[in-house]
Structure prediction request, 67 residues.
Amino acid sequence: MEASKAEYTRHRAVVELEPFGEFGSLDVHFFPCDVVKVATSNTIYGQPGYPHNEPLNMEEPKTCPAH
Prediction:
């Protein structure tokens, strides 16, 4: 257990939330290059209308663009 803790990293991000009027889910997506996006939606990943339908297994690029 201690060996695996040495591999942990900690990140912090401040993200904008789109206003929503109905109850739904709050989904947090972690992308390469320390990009975090939050979706508030009544649909699920892969469905039309879901705001973040990027591939699930994106590769980390060799260099990340400046944010």
About this structure: Helices lie at 2-5. The first helix runs from residue 2 to 5.
